[in-house]
């Protein structure tokens, strides 16, 4: 039995990148009341603020939902790992902080599918509005937004070695991946400020908690179902400790729980494929078969090498000593190894010159990564990820039971299409060109995973053995019109019901060419603008 409920203009379910942005912006108007429900904690301690500690959060259950996939047919039946942020900031509280928007053509493609208002020219102002960039300004960047974006502060000499390797491999050098052109290799900008992680919660929410009387934030509040009056969403039921509580929404319920948990909550609440819901004893509120379909993620392969050079971290006596020594510098100056996001270098490449946009992305890391850091190895070294930016494979999210505390069923369908495997073979070869340059070979003591890989068949074999996520799931509540699989319209309103909107990465109809945190924040910014315009008109 639920306890008595209170009412707000808007209830935001999920304090991730989209939820923090939309809640923060809507609550700027003191006449608009906003309640945000977050299943995790506050994420406002040193563990979240210190960039280096992502190495402890990503492999573990610290601020992390720690999901798993179903067995992946394209990966020899392996069960994949899906870390997702649990707490205010969502995955921006545990991610590698890389600030990337994607390619111009990604958004123009969304618009070409009938999603008016989502072209690159339409979304660029929202990227700029969100951004407070310490280094770049002008046509493509903003310097007055709440989201701090900075260059690396690790002062690591390996940066120059990486750039030298890029030159030796005859790849372009790119200073800014978020301007007119994307192709090339270089150093990433990060969502940091004074050497600390700057999550979406720090940008949009935490400065206002307790200061805006119209903003209520509840943590450890796990939404269990959307409340409907007919087909109108009127509130949310949630569990907090041993209590079951309700909040009522006078205007809208906004779902911002991410590509896995937003469709999960919709299905638990009776919005989804009616036949599939009936199998779990859930009555249908509205038959919407696209809910949970169209899951897309970047399949990722990692090269890794042992190295005793003092640029890298890892489990060794010297490596641990260097990290301990770096703590003092971090406390004094906000610089040094503790500010690492590990994926300090990288970039975007074409595996074929005729492509209109890069089709692979590299993340060059300052440690050996094996199974997302869950398999620890003695020694120091470095890694290089290569991911396929626009895979053809489509997966799904479903229910495992009607229990709202049970995890969703997650099937990314990695390498489910042969075209993705062949594209990854090309990506492997392109990345190997960089790894085999004199500059990087001079750092390598031992090739951890690929020493015996020579033929294309060898490459296909190791890809199926080792590919997994690089943490960019999208698409499970796709935006679209005149599309039987679409879940939301271009205003992000859920088709067939009223008072319900989705504001997170699940609305992306297709996967963008890059990291998904900045685009999800952009979606939150744009959603707040659309909502405010509707309030003004009505």
UniProtKB/TrEMBL annotation:
- Cite the Glucose-methanol-choline oxidoreductase N-terminal domain residue spans from the record: 85-108, 258-272
A Pfam family hit: GMC_oxred_C
Q: Per its record, how is this protein called by name?
A: Choline dehydrogenase-like flavoprotein
An example GO biological process term is: glycine betaine biosynthetic process from choline
Cofactor dependence is on: FAD
GO terms of molecular function: choline dehydrogenase activity; flavin adenine dinucleotide binding
InterPro entries reported for this sequence: FAD/NAD-bd_sf, GMC_OxRdtase, GMC_OxRdtase_N, GMC_OxRtase_C
Binding, FAD: 95-98
Source superkingdom? Bacteria
What are the leading ranks of the lineage? Bacteria, Pseudomonadati, Pseudomonadota, Alphaproteobacteria, Hyphomicrobiales
Task: List the GO terms this entry assigns under cellular component, sorted alphabetically.
Answer: membrane
User: What's the source species for this entry?
Assistant: Rhodopseudomonas rhenobacensis
Which Gene3D superfamilies does its entry note? FAD/NAD(P)-binding domain, Glucose Oxidase, domain 3
Report the PROSITE patterns cross-referenced here: GMC_OXRED_1 (PS00623), GMC_OXRED_2 (PS00624)
| PANTHER family the UniProt entry points to | CHOLINE DEHYDROGENASE, MITOCHONDRIAL, GLUCOSE-METHANOL-CHOLINE GMC OXIDOREDUCTASE
Per UniProt, the keywords (alphabetical) are: FAD, Flavoprotein
Q: Which family does it belong to?
A: Belongs to the GMC oxidoreductase family.
């Amino acid at each position: 039995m639920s306890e008595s409920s209170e009412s707000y203009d808007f209830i935001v379910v999920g304090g991730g990148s989209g939820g923090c942005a939309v809640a923060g912006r809507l609550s700027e108007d003191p006449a608009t009341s906003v309640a945000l429900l977050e299943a995790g904690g506050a994420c406002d301690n040193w563990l979240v603020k210190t960039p280096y500690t992502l190495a402890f959060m990503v492999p573990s259950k610290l601020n992390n939902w720690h999901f798993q996939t179903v067995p992946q047919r394209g990966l020899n039946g392996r069960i994949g790992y899906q870390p997702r942020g649990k707490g205010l900031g969502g995955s921006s509280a545990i991610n590698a902080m890389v600030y990337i928007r994607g390619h111009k053509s990604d958004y123009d493609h969304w618009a070409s599918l009938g999603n008016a208002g989502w072209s690159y020219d339409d979304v660029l102002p929202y990227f700029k509005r969100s951004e407070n960039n310490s280094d770049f300004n002008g046509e493509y960047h903003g310097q007055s937004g709440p989201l701090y974006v900075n260059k690396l502060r690790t002062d690591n000499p390996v940066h120059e070695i990486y750039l030298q390797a890029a030159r030796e491999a005859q790849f372009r050098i790119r200073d800014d991946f978020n301007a007119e052109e994307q192709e090339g290799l270089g150093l990433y900008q990060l969502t940091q400020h004074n050497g600390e992680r700057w999550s979406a919660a720090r940008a949009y929410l935490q400065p206002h908690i307790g200061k805006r009387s119209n903003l209520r934030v509840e943590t450890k509040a796990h939404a269990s179902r959307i409340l409907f009056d007919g087909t109108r969403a009127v509130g949310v039921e949630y569990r907090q400790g041993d209590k079951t509580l309700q909040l009522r929404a006078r205007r809208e319920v906004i779902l911002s729980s991410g590509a896995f948990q937003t469709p999960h909550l919709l299905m638990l609440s009776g919005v989804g494929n009616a036949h599939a819901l009936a199998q779990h004893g859930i009555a249908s509120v509205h038959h919407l078969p696209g809910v949970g379909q169209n899951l897309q993620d970047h399949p990722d392969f990692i090269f890794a090498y042992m190295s005793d050079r003092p640029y890298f971290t890892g489990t060794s006596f010297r490596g641990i000593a260097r990290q301990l020594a770096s703590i003092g510098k971090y406390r004094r100056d906000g610089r040094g190894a503790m500010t690492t996001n590990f994926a300090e270098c990288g970039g975007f490449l074409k595996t074929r010159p005729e492509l209109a946009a890069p089709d692979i992305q590299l993340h060059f890391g300052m440690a050996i990564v094996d199974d997302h850091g869950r398999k620890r190895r003695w020694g120091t070294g470095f890694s290089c990820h290569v991911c396929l930016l626009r895979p053809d494979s489509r997966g799904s999210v479903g229910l495992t039971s009607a229990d709202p505390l049970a995890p969703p069923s997650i099937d990314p369908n990695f390498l489910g299409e042969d075209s993705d495997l062949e594209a990854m073979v090309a990506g492997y070869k392109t990345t190997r060109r960089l790894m085999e340059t004199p500059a990087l070979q001079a750092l390598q003591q031992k090739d951890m995973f690929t020493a015996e890989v020579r033929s294309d068949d060898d490459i296909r074999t190791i890809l199926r053995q080792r590919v997994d996520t690089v943490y960019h799931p999208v698409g499970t509540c796709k935006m679209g019109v005149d599309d039987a699989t679409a879940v939301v319209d271009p205003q992000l309103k859920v088709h067939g019901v009223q008072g319900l909107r989705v504001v997170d990465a699940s609305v992306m109809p297709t996967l963008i060419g890059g990291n998904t945190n900045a685009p999800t924040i952009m979606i939150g910014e744009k959603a707040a603008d659309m909502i405010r315009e509707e309030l003004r008109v009505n």
